[in-house]
Design goal:
The complex is a heterodimer.
Chain A: H1 2-8, E1 11-16, H2 22-35, E2 40-44, E3 50-51, E4 57-58, H3 61-70, E5 72-75, H4 89-97, E6 99-107, E7 120-126, E8 130-140, E9 143-151, H5 152-168, E10 173-178, H6 186-200, E11 205-210, H7 211-218, E12 227-230, H8 232-246, E13 253-258, E14 263-267, H9 284-297, H10 300-316, H11 330-344
Parallel strand pairs in A: 1-2, 1-5, 5-14, 7-12, 10-11, 10-12
Antiparallel strand pairs in A: 3-4, 6-7, 6-13, 8-9, 13-14
Helix pairs in contact in A: 2-9, 2-11, 5-6, 9-10, 10-11
Chain B: H1 2-17, H2 20-35, E1 49-54, H3 60-73, E2 78-82, H4 94-107, E3 109-112, H5 128-136, E4 140-146, E5 159-165, E6 175-179, E7 182-190, H6 191-207, E8 212-217, H7 225-237, E9 244-249, H8 250-259, E10 266-269, H9 271-285, E11 292-296, E12 301-305, H10 323-335, H11 339-355, H12 369-380
Helix pairs in contact in B: 3-12, 6-7, 8-9, 10-11, 11-12
Classes of the chains: A alpha/beta, B alpha/beta.
Chain lengths: 345, 386
Amino acid sequence: VALRKTFNNMQTVTLIPGDGIGPEISNAVMKIFEAANAPIEWEERNVTAIKGPGGKWMIPPDAKESMDRNKIGLKGPLKTPIAAGHPSMNLLLRKTFDLYANVRPCVSIEGYKTPYTDVNLVTIRENTEGEYSGIEHLIVDGVVQSIKLITEQASERIAEYAFEYARNNQRASVTAVHKANIMRMSDGLFLRKCREAAEKHKDVKFTEMYLDTVCLNMVQDPTQFDVLVMPNLYGDILSDLCAGLIGGLGVTPSGNIGANGVAIFESVHGTAPDIAGKDFANPTALLLSAVMMLRHMGLHSHGKKIETACFDTIRDKKVLTKDLGGNSKCSEFTEAICQKVRDMD
Amino acid sequence: MAVALKRSLAVLVKSLGGPKWWQQASRSVSISASLSRVESPPARADATFKVTMLPGDGVGPELMTAVKDVFKAGDVPVEFDEFHLSEVQNMASEDKLEELLSSMKNNKVAIKGKIHTPMEFKGELASYEMRLRRKLDLFANVVHVNSLPGYSTRHNNLDLVIIREQTEGEYSSLEHESVPGVIECLKIITRAKSRRIAKFAFDYATKKGRNKVTAVHKANIMKLGDGLFLQCCAEVAQLYPKIKYENIIIDNCCMQLVQNPYQFDVLVMPNLYGNIIDNLAAGLVGGAGVVPGESYSAEYAVFETGARHPFAQAVGRNIANPTAMLLSAANMLRHLNLEYHSHMVSDAVKRVIKQGKVRTRDLGGYCTTGDFVHAVVENLRHRPNY
């Protein structure tokens, strides 16, 4: 196997199919990649939480070892059973691999009409701290306090990453989104770090905008935005808002960048247990995340090929899954994309 | 507890309906106006209402001038007590704030622009606007998101009401640096205030004949804080069986608002989410220049624009859109029980927008604020038959 790797220049990627519709859409993606002759080898792993020594919940050691070795991962939707006793799976993965940046490029899909055309922006969200630190206290009965944590280190890291991303992907400007007029110290620190990073990357334009102004302008004219960088809560809201502009979570890719070069790309929709196993699922979100992964790995031509095939299939409107407005099955949709990919060679 | 709730209900209803003796004065005005409609200008009312006016920063003063011009042309019996409080222009001090507060307590109704909060940390974490809100206990902010007939956007025929708790939550201004490089910001949620805003929302929905109230939260992550808010909303919802109650997570809510905003009716939420949704919804119908809003406490009412921005880039250029402020002024007149004048002003504004000939920059036209006000004044002369 090792010989084959170096001879064919194949790269191994950890694949986490997930729950619900996860396995179906993962299969769809694997089929399309095969049709495109992408030099990717898949290593499937399961990440159901297990209790490690010391009573702490963790992901299975073989999954962790595989990710650490391959550095790149593709993940389907994971479900967290209620009253399972452990924190959400996504949170566990985030903590294990220190996934500090969540990147969501939102590009309007030509065949899928929404009231907003020409959207082309990227939201970069700090993923480890902020309002989601989970630190809450009941002070007296009827008064609750939640703590929002902003640290210099995390803000610096995300600001640096935002500018690196802008540079690597030929983006013209980075906008920091904040509420420093109200939260003067915390968002003030975040903003200061962004300004410092801007000084070091003078080839990218830097602007700053209040969160409410961004929301106001985003729904009127989304073309004025390019790359947006922000702390955790604002990022969560804005990235979902932008996903809504282009058509929802079923067509939005997403990537999580971690320390030590680890990157996990995922689809952000739910597990849809009601349609699991019935061949109704739409693999677009996972497919576009996989394309994002190819671009991250430097395989731009393969990424472009698969992305074009996918967009062409949607634009043709002949074979579409139910959520995109058609009534074909997932396998038919996948086959249509594979056909287009083969035709391109 | 029921007695306490009933008492607060009575106070709320009173504040929403206006004090009783105003009604006497306003009735005489409408009668004399309708009688003398054809021959002479309407009779001067014996009682003019005093309203506190706070122009604020940015384009606030220009918008206030617009309101005053329209009121003068329409012979509206309102007199303004002006105050100039501004942090960025160094016109702020404790005494000014006290003066302003005593005037407000006398008049009980105010109209204001936005007092801009400078970004530099001047040694005080709470801005003047926040302190004004806290001292008067203006806990509820209501923004009316209505599509304007004649101006089409991507989503037409919208009719939403957004109710936001504005005294606690993320804007508590409690921040400290525990270790160098690590800053903590506290978000406070209390049961009393959450119950109060939930009750306000349901009372408002009942009064205006609305069907559904949706609570917006992030209780899956902030389990204790937003969980408490959600619990209070659910408890209050049980007292209003005729009104449907739902809840939705904030990020899903934003997504739904841009894809299908018609599923919402009245939305209630804590402070920060309110800021986001106010502005988002304002953008859906045409921007910050067309959405009116007001803030209520148990005794006072303050009228302002829905999306609060000082818009400093437009100062002096005469391009700001006074629609939001004029519609809010019309709401103020309704609050004072001057129904006739309220309809007069709002109909004139809506007629100008529908005709589409005079539009300010933000709605795609080239007219100045002055042109727009002039057009509204012209349309005032054609008064409706009420």
